[in-house]
Amino acid sequence: MNKKINIVPASGKLGILTPGLGAVATTFIAGVIAARKGIGKPIGSLTQMGRLRLGKRTENRHPLIREFVPLVPIEQLVFGGWDIFTDDVYAAASHAKVLDQRLLDDLKEDLRSIKPMPAVFDSHYIRNINGPNVKKGASKMELAEQLMEDIRRFQAENGCERVVMVWCASTEAYLQAGPVHYSLAVFEEGLRQSDPGIAPSQIYAYAALKCRVPFANGAPNLTCDIPALLELSIREKTPIGGKDFKTGQTLMKTVVAPGLSARALGVRGWFSTNILGNRDGEVLDAPENFRTKEVSKGNVLEGIFNQELHPELYGELYHKIRINYYPPHGDNKESWDNIDLFGWLGYPMQIKINFLCRDSILAAPIVLDLALFLDLAQRAGLHGIQEWLSFYFKAPQTLPGLPAEHDIFKQLSKLENTLRYLMGEDLITHLGQDYYEDFYAQQAGH
Ligand SMILES: NC(=O)c1ccc[n+]([C@@H]2O[C@H](COP(=O)([O-])OP(=O)(O)OC[C@H]3O[C@@H](n4cnc5c(N)ncnc54)[C@H](O)[C@@H]3O)[C@@H](O)[C@H]2O)c1
């Protein structure tokens, strides 16, 4: 047995703040409230439905994760957020059309009471939408201070012991780390000077970390994946994670690709296309915003099919991704994957995947799990990048120079072993020699 880590109890209320109260955030909030009232089940959420194995296979110990590690119960969650539109969560969820109107009507009172705070917004970073509920400030630093004030007020008004923040707002235009992101001191000066290289999502992340509020990034924006904010997260002993919720097509990719690579099958091409008609799709219709998504989705296969180690299997892999805005489908994304693979002696084969998914239905449980696990991480004294939460992301944030792990099965092992480690349980390596050694020793004794 390992030594158990000292974890502060999960007492009191936990506030979950989301920049963006659109399809994902409102589906998440309505879903948790529905589960709380017993009118729906939080399916897809590991923290609510998942179990993990402890000890040897023969011990038959498979506790629910939420009973194994001290997580805040969903009854103790309080929700809030920011949006550029003034719609409350009931109106925004009705607009998003993910959940049945009848269900939303049953939850109307609770949902109506959650109203968006004015957002920090910059149309240079999101071109295709604009709204009236936006903060004004003399500098980006002043906007960050307004956000910090929002966080403190929300926490006090709702009697929350702790708060976490999960970015659920639109995808920002593609941004690469530049000099203003390289250190905290330069970044803070950049905020004071309103440096155009600082995106709104980075202002939210800065405000969160300054308040010691853990921050996860559900979109592919650069956001906290910069040295300045990593420095701040370490200094403030606050966990961060990102980027881009792993749902839909990429989820399927990280399920199928490890299987092909495990069998040393070659892959020559992987063409992914999809259509979706929600506001996310509308934002991604702008080339600079699509570029952000393309980069985050694009690295997944290259991470699993290692071209350098296996040039004869993956050296010629052609990976192409398209996202098409198609309003009639709303949030019901449809994706097609065509995989050109080859086997023994190079004989070609094909796999076709047609996934008729619901984007926000897959993303909502991720928001819940990230919020609860980030809060756990902070109470356990973990801070900085939480690589064990890679399981939830398309483009997991890691230390600079450390390659990300994209294989969902390895990511799950890492997550489960982290929970075992926190609770002082043996890590599971799946070696399994001990069963056989014990058996052979017994046989030899007879
Ligand atoms: N649904 C999925 O499966 C999925 C998967 C991975 C990532 N994502 C990402 O999650 C994010 C949310 O997706 P969605 O489907 O809810 O989109 P959405 O368009 O329905 O909601 C986003 C909301 O963010 C608001 N917003 C934009 N800029 C803002 C700002 N600066 N501050 C506050 N609010 C702002 C918009 O007004 C909108 O209401 C997107 O970035 C999307 O790419 C979604």
Task: Give a written overview of the molecule.
With 446 residues, the chain is α/β, with parallel strands linked by helices. Helices cover 40% and strands 15% of the residues. The protein has two domains: 13-245 and 361-422, Rossmann fold (3-Layer(aba) Sandwich); 249-357, Dihydrodipicolinate Reductase, domain 2, CATH 3.30.360. The chain is built from 17 helices and eleven strands. Strand 9 and strand 10 form a beta hairpin. It starts with 12 loop residues before the first strand and ends with a helix. The model has no long low-confidence stretch (mean pLDDT 95). Nicotinamide-adenine-dinucleotide binds at residues 19-25, 82-85, 96, 119-121, 126, 129, 131, 168-171, 200, 218-219, 244-245, 247-248, 278-280, 359-360, 362-363. The site of nicotinamide-adenine-dinucleotide (NAD) has 36 residues, from helix 1, strand 2, helix 12 and helix 15.
- Number of beta strands: 11
- How many domains? The number is 2
Give helix and strand order, one letter per element, not per position.
EHHHEHHHEHEHHEHEHEHHHEEEHEHH
Distance between the termini: 31 Å
Strand order of the largest sheet: 3-2-1-4-5-6-11
Task: List the main descriptive attributes of the protein structure presented here.
single chain, 446 residues, alpha/beta, Rossmann fold, Dihydrodipicolinate Reductase, domain 2, 7-stranded parallel β-sheet, 4-stranded mixed β-sheet, 17 helices, globular, binds nicotinamide-adenine-dinucleotide
Quick synopsis:
Helix content is 40%, strand content 15%.
